[in-house]
Amino acid sequence: MQDCIFCKIIKKEIPCEKVYEDETVLAFLDINPVNLGHTLVVPKKHFENIYDIEENEVTHLIKIAKKISIALKKMGADGTNITINNGKAAGQVIPHFHTHVIPRSVEDNLPLWPAKKPKEGELKEVAKKIISML
Ligand code: 5GP
Ligand code: ZN
Fold first, then answer.
1. Which of 39, 49, 46, 63 is nearest to 11 (CA)?
2. Domain that holds residue 9
3. CATH code for the domain in which residue 88 is found
4. Which of 8, 19, 86, 91 has the highest CB neighbour count under 10 A?
5. In this predicted model, what pLDDT tens digit does every residue of 12-67 receive, in sequence order?
């Protein structure tokens, strides 16, 4: 896609710190890392997010996210977060599908998502709704 930053990185029109590449995937360091080693794993084909990416593409991409995760662990990370933001409401800024692989340390003190306590019966109700939509 013409005006897509990640498509431009894939076409080498914009430089990046590449850590992995194969026929369908490119992985490079995030320019504004949460922690050093924060990597983005990106399909070479332009998909916007989880709603339109082809299943075989996302399957392969997660395999590569696992590979990067293991590499970060070998480098000393205590854990990793693998996150995918889908849509503006979920914090997606770049509309080209990507997974974040973020190395974590027991001491980095990053905030976790605040959890909400559901009301009586809400979990059962929402589970029923999700099942009906699958
Ligand atoms: P999103 O919020 O869309 O899930 O995440 C987009 C990520 O892309 C952000 O963490 C941001 O720092 C990163 N990013 C944006 N522009 C560039 C760029 O030009 N190069 C690199 N390497 N990362 C970028
Ligand atoms: Zn793109």
1. 46
2. 5-133
3. 3.30.428.10
4. 19
5. 999 999 999 999 999 999 999 999 999 999 999 999 999 999 999 999 999 999 99
Rounded distance between C-alpha atoms, residue 134 and residue 129, angstroms: 9
Count of other CB atoms within 10 angstroms of residue 50? 15
- Residues β-bridged to residue 20: 27
Ligand 1 pocket check for 4: Cβ under 6 Å: no
Say if pTM beats, i.e. exceeds, 0.85. Answer: yes
Please state the domain count of the chain: 1
> Is the distance from the beta carbon of residue 83 to the nearest atom of ligand 1 less than 6 Å?
no
**Residues 53-109: pLDDT tens digits?**
999 999 999 999 999 999 999 999 999 999 999 999 999 999 999 999 999 999 999
CB 107 within 8 A of CB 59: no
Least Cα distance to 66 among 45, 55, 80 occurs for 80
Q: Which of 45, 82, 79, 48 is nearest to 65 (CA)?
A: 82
Q: Which two tokens stand for residue 105?
A: 């340390």
User: Which residue carries 């709603």 as its tokens?
Assistant: 51
Q: How many angstroms is it from 6 CA to the middle of ligand 2?
A: 5
